[in-house]
Structure formats: structure tokens, C-alpha cells
Amino acid sequence: MGWTEPSGLDDLLIEAVFSAGAHIGSVYVLDGTRQVLGMEATIGLPATVARTWARVRTNECVPISVAVRERRLLWLQDRMALARGFPAAALALPYDFAMAFAPLCSGGAVWGGFVLGWPTGGEAALTSGRTRLIEDVCARIGRLLHRASERGRPVVPGPLPRILDQVHALRPGQPAGLTALTCLNCLPEGHLYLDAQARVTLVTAQAAEILDADPSQLIGRRLCKALPWLDDPLYEDHYRGAVVSHRVTRFTARHSDGRLLSVECFPGVPGVTLRIVPAAAGHEAGSSDAEGRPPLLGLHEMLHLATCLAQAVTAQDVVDLVADHVLPVTGAQALAILSWESGRMRVVASRGYSPEGIATFNGRPVVHAVPWVPGYQWDRPSFYGTWREFQRTFPTAVQVDGMSAWALLPLSAAGQSIGTCVLGYDRPRRFGEAERAMLTALGGLIAQAFERAWLYDNKHQLAESLQARLLPADLPEIPGLELAARYLPTTPGMDIGGDFYDVIRLDDTTAAAVIGDVQGHDMTAAALMGQVRTAIRATASTTATCGEVLAHANRLMTELAPDRFTSCLYIKLDLAARTVCLAGAGHPPPLLSIPGAPTRVLDEVTGLLLGIDPAAEYGTTVLPLPPGSVLALYTDGLVEQRGLDLGDAIASLAARFTPAPDRPLHELAEALVQPATEHQRTDDTAVLLLRLEDGR
């Protein structure tokens, strides 16, 4: 009998959990962009926890992302190990358990990630047997995902993870369930069984009597919804603690009639058995006031979101993080952050709205509320359960993408409005008091993150614009000299850089080139970059030698910015004599490739950094430049790598710098910087290539 990919995946996941003696297992699958991991299936995790971790970005600092990104098995033996390596994740999961995270690989590609969890204790160790089991299961699941993709039926995670149930997996017969209920009814205590979704699947007669509830009103419903007096984050935390840590937890709850009940949570895989008895005298309720607390995003989800938002840099980062963590929990289908310029709306970032819907927002006049709507205040969150309610407040609004309910969360900073966060729902909705309170708190988190992102976006755009204007738009055309340049800014989210380069045509047979790096990653560095480049260009057009050009720039730097240093390399090419004169100021040495000879590192081109000693002198080196020779000038961003000696990095660059005579320089420049595009860059990179053509 055949099986589809998801059912086969389920079988492998369940088999792995029980074979490894674990109590938690999850499978993540990479989406089409290969930037997001979606939880496809899980067993042993509470549904609320699974929803919180349903979508994880591969560049996030969380264990499963690191395991997938670095293609390695990651073992965290206890809560302290999690806190040391991943403090944000530890804040969101403050429970005692050990976990293993591994990539799912097949055919040389990564298809997703795999997670197993164990209770902490003497048996919570990554033994060689468990390692072999994890490797075997990961290989099998990886092959399954690979085959499914090749057949054109890739496994695609749904909006929410599938919660596997041990009872359904083992398929016990109906008589066994009746027998178990009969046995439990013989005990004096009350017992309930909650499945992985925290729904009641079994309730004994004694439990119904103690809870003063009709069993038919409990079966199939989440206990906290069937009994509102149990709808409290503190009680929810005890339930989660039992499931995730796989340890018995206990708490005392106050019944709506005032009675105190003692509740014990006995974890299974998955689900929890509750034992309920009247509390002994002297016990106090674990929480006496659950009214008004948000039932959708609990304390730990909110803390987890807050820690993630603290790392957001751009407005789109804010929207992506909120959408990943909030939309699956709140049931909203779309989210957007709106701002306004000159009386017109602008969509800063969005998720869930169609491009046509975004176009409907962008550029429209700001929609104002009518003044006579009771209770409306522009600086307070507002909620509209139907289109009619929304239109009553905003008569000129346009319904976009068929949304039928909205939550509008104003975003303000220092008393000034900076935008609005819009949550859209595709069907009418009744916003209860608890949900309104939760969304209001959420708006505060988003406002803080968006303010930082808004300031960063404006500052970074200004700096990038300045930097782009200071770099040459085009390289000059010089007969007998082929030129190519490539510039890589820092990764979005990092600071701006101070790298610069320039090529100057001096006359028909002479040209100069310069490359440098101003210390710092800010607006001052960008401004100094322009001043140094201008000073060198002005001096180069005189009869000054290469050393004199750098000496003049050095004196200027010590006057303009005595607290800043600049590395610089200046060269002058005589195309008629086929020679090059070089002078350096603390810059990485250039490379020289001559046809038929190994690439040479010109490390004799040395000198003091600009801006240290105004009286510094700079020596020059003159070298022959046979036809076909290629010079490579670059900044340290091309070679600096954490943990790698700079000299070894330059030697490695020289080894792979082998320009073929018929290969265009622009292709070679692209190949040189390609490795730097594959990871986050904390420094910018500039490369300038010059080839003496055979025509002269």
C-alpha cells in the first residue's frame, strides 16, 4: 500500500521520537525562497508553542536556523546551554529540556531541519547511538523531501504546523479507550486527558463532578475555553512546562464558585493527563485574577517577539518578524505599516496584501475619520469588526483585497505620529476585550521597533546616496588600458563604509589610479572619503611624484580629521614606457599578474597610514609592466575573514587571481567579489582592475 510524502514523513518523525527516547520531534521544510523554514509537522510540542515557532528565517540566531545554515548537528544539553548560545530563544522557552537540531540534506542540497527533544537529566546526553539515529533519520527524510521535489510535488508547510497525536499514530482500538475510562472512573480523583492541541479527549465522572461541568461540554474543546476560569497565562505556563520539559507540574486554581482545586499535569507524547482534586486547606490560588489578560499572545510569545524586534533594522524586518510570529496566532491574513508624505499615504512595508492592494494604498490622499464618530481618537488603537463599521468611521476608505475586519494600531514616537500598523482579516470578527488589550500591547512593541527602523532607513539612505555620489559613475576610456571596478556596500543592516577608488587620465600615455579606505563606518567617513579623493585627484594632475601625492593627502587628513586614519594606494602608469610607479599608505598590497608567471603580491609597497604623522614621507616603487599584465587593487573587505590571518588571506586571493588573456576584466572583478556576496558583510569592499593591452 503506497503512501504520500506527508504520511511517510509522519511515520519517520514518530519512529525517530520513540526510537531515540525523546518526547519532542519537529520537521522544518525550506520554502521556495530558501530563506524561511516552515514547521511542517511536530509531535510533543503544545500547539501554542508550535505556532510561535511555525516560521523561522534562516538568518535568525535560533538553533534550527544555525543547524541548517551551517549544515551541522547542534546539541544543547540543557536550558543553560540554550541561554548561553541563544538568549532570545531561551527567553521564549524557559523550560528544562535537551535538544538536538540537524539539517535535512540530500543530493548535495539542504531541504529543511530536524529537531528532537529530551527531558533533562542523566539520560539527556548525545550518545553515539543517538547521533547515528539522528543522521539516519535526517538522511531518510532528506531523501523523501528531495524525491517529492523532483516529482513536482514538493512538501510545502501549511500556515500552521500539523500536530501529530501519538494516540492517532498508534491507532488504539475503541475498546481500549473504553477500558481506560472505566479504570479511571474507579479512582477517587478526577482525570482529564488533553491532546497536543490542549483539547479534552477524555474526562472521568469524578473530574466532571469536581469541575461542576457537563462532560459533553468539555470533550473536543480546549479546556481553557470550556472553563473560562482556567484561561490564565500562569495556568497555561504550567501546562507548557509539563509538555516541553516532560516533567510533572502542579498548581492551585480557583474555581468560579470560589473553591480551590489542586491540579497536577502528567506529560505524555504528546498531550497531558490532568489529575484534579480539591485543594487542601491553606493552599492559595496560583493566580487570582485572570480577567483581561491576552489569550492569544501569552507572556513568553510577547517576550520572544520583543527580543526579535530588538534586532530588526529596516521597516520590512519589522513587518516580517511581526507577520511570522503574530499572524499565525491572531488569525489575521495581512499586515502593513503605513506612513504619509505631503498628505498622501505610503506603504512602508507589508505582508499578505497583493501588489494591486498595495498600489491602491500608495499615493492616495490620507483617509481621515469623520469627527462625529463616538469614541474614536487618532492616537488610540481602533478595531472594526465589519466593513460597515470601518466605512462609518472612514467614509472615503476603499476596501482592499476583500478584507472584512481591521485593527489599526497607531505608531508614535516622542509624542509624534510616525505611522499606522494595519492588521487585516478576511472575514468579520468580534474583537474581545482581551484581544484588544493584546493588540494594543503589540502596537507598542511595533512602534518602538519601527521608530528605530525609520531612523535607520533615513540615515542609511542619505549615507548611501552620499557615498554613491562620491564614487565615480563611470571609469574613463584610456587607449591601451582596460579597466573594471566593483563595489560592494555592507550588508543592509550594517553601517556604511568608507572605501573609495578613482582612475584619472593625465594625458594620452599616462594614467593614475587610487584606492583607499577611510576609518569608520559613518557619515564622517563618507565625507572624508570624498575630500581625500578630491585632494588626490587635484595633486595627481601636477608634476608631483606618487610619494608626494600621498604626502599631500596625509597633511590634509591630519588637519581635517586628526582622529581618523586612512589607508591608501596610489599608482601611476606610463603606458608608453610600460611601467608602473606605486606608493602605499598602510593599504593591502596590490597583486600583479604577468602572462606566463605566477601572480605576485607587491608587499614592498608600504608606508604609514594617512592622518597619523603630518611629516611622514612615502617611498615609491617602479616596476615593469609587460603587455597583458593585470594589476588588482582592493580594500580589506575582500580579504578579511574572522579567524584567518590577513597574510594567508592575501596569499589565497593571489592563488586564485589567474586572469586569462581573453577574459573580460568585468567578469574577473565579479568573480573576485562573489564569495563576499554569500555572507553578511560588516565592511564594504572595492576592487579595481587594470590591464595593459597588447596594442601598444
Automatic annotation (TrEMBL):
Alphabetically ordered keywords of this record: ATP-binding, Hydrolase, Kinase, Magnesium, Manganese, Metal-binding, Nucleotide-binding, Phosphoprotein, Protein phosphatase, Transferase
Function: Primarily acts as an independent SigF regulator that is sensitive to the osmosensory signal, mediating the cross talk of PknD with the SigF regulon. Possesses both phosphatase and kinase activities. The kinase domain functions as a classic anti-sigma factor-like kinase to phosphorylate the anti-anti-sigma factor domain at the canonical regulatory site, and the phosphatase domain antagonizes this activity.
UniProt protein name: protein-serine/threonine phosphatase
SMART domains associated with the record: PP2C_SIG
GO cellular component: ribosome
Biological process, per Gene Ontology: translation
Reactions accelerated catalytically: O-phospho-L-seryl-[protein] + H2O = L-seryl-[protein] + phosphate
Origin species: Nonomuraea gerenzanensis
PANTHER family named among the record's database cross-references: STAGE II SPORULATION PROTEIN E (PTHR43156:SF2), STAGE II SPORULATION PROTEIN E-RELATED (PTHR43156)
